[in-house]
Amino acid sequence: MSNYNDIEDNEIRIIGNASQPSPTPHKRFWQRWWFWAAIAAVILLFVLLIGLAYKSDILHFGNTTEPTAEESDFDQYTSTNVNAVSPTIVAREPATVLISDTVVNDVPLQILTPVNAVPELCLGIPDTTDERIILALQAADIRADNNEIVGAFVLKGELLARGVAKKGFCAILDGTVRLGLAESTPYFEEATNEDGYFFRQYPLVCDGRMVENKPKGKALRHALCELDGQVVVVSSGDEESFHDFAQALADLGVQNAINLVGKDAYGFFHGNDNDFQSWGDLYQEWKSSPYLNFLVWRTPR
Fold first, then answer.
1. Is the pLDDT score of 159 beyond 70?
2. What is the rounded distance in angstroms from the CA atom of residue 237 to the CA atom of residue 222?
3. What distances in angstroms separate CA 240 from CA 66, 217, 220, 254, 279, one per listed residue?
4. Is the N or C terminus of the chain more exposed, i.e. has fewer CB atoms within 10 Å?
5. Structure pTM?
6. Distance between CA 161 and CA 44 in Å, rounded?
7. Which residues, other chains included, contact 105 with Cβ-Cβ below 8 Å and sequence gap of 6+?
8. Residue 156: left if φ>0, alpha if ψ -120 to 50, beta else—which one?
9. Would strands 168-173 and 209-210 be described as parallel, antiparallel, or unpaired?
10. What is the spatial order of strands in the sheet that 176-181 belongs to?
11. How far apart are CA 183 and CA 77, in angstroms?
């Protein structure tokens, strides 16, 4: 027998089982089903995240011409001086609203000062024929997804909503108003325990300095302000951005201020000589929310 390794120059010898199929070549990773499944999952996740981000920007009513992202650049601010501001009392004068107009940084402003009246919160549109109500404006925003109140809200000691998405706050205790900027404040607990009122909104001015807010765009603005030791409402005569409105308030000399619902939000006041003025849209469909709320000033009984 010749040696197995002894192969002649003109001889061809097949080694192994000729009937055995050759091994299947490995597929590259982009040729495998799981690669494309992973790509599809990533695309789907990206679309879902975009959708959630868009939805979060339209969750709230109020200034609906602009996104309502729930953050403000408040970290650089600290509310170190929260004053208890009592209602403005003028002896022997009926309850009324004093009106003054000014222009700051080319921003026309109207200042409404309630006199001889006590502030409180209420649900539902106030009775416009009740002359004891001298001033009424929408206070906290309403969510579009469930028609509930945005942020913590206390109505005469009753807790109706929770949350600190908006860091500005107004607390009303025994007729006095406290405006500030904080994620946590003891005035929330005091309002709950002492039949008080509490709501949250965007902060505009803190300790005399304007506060930047993330929402962009322009709208008619209203603000609840501490000015010269009094609580006043300041409204813009034109559509303004948050930045320009807040800066105008600070330059006006406002110590603390929070936003009130703007754009076409409804409001009214009774002035001297039975002067009645209103603004905004009373008949918007979303205002049928049972949690639609107002900040009002009433003549004490």
1. yes
2. 10
3. 12, 8, 6, 17, 17
4. N
5. 0.74
6. 34
7. 244, 247, 248, 251
8. left
9. unpaired
10. 158-161, 153-155, 197-201, 168-173, 176-181
11. 12
Contact 43, 50 (CB under 8 A): no
CB 197 within 8 A of CB 211: no
Tokens of 267: 């409001």
Which residues are CB-neighbours of 247 under 8 A, at least 6 positions away? 105, 210
Give CA–CA dist 229/256, Å, rounded: 10
pLDDT tens string 210-260: 999 988 899 999 999 999 999 999 999 999 999 999 999 999 999 999 999
Task: From 269, 292, 73, 256, select the one nearest 170 (Cα to Cα).
Answer: 256
C-beta of residue 39 within 8 angstroms of C-beta of residue 47 = no
d(CA 276, CA 127): 13
Distance from the Cα of residue 136 to its chain's centroid: 20
Q: Which two tokens stand for residue 15?
A: 């080694």
The pLDDT value given to residue 59:
38
Question: Beta-carbon neighbour count of residue 207 at 10 Å?
Answer: 16
**Amino acid in the structure at residue 11:** E
Phi, psi of 113 (to 5 degrees): -115, 110
- Measured CA to CA, the distance from residue 24 to residue 217 in angstroms comes to 62
The residue type found at 219 is A
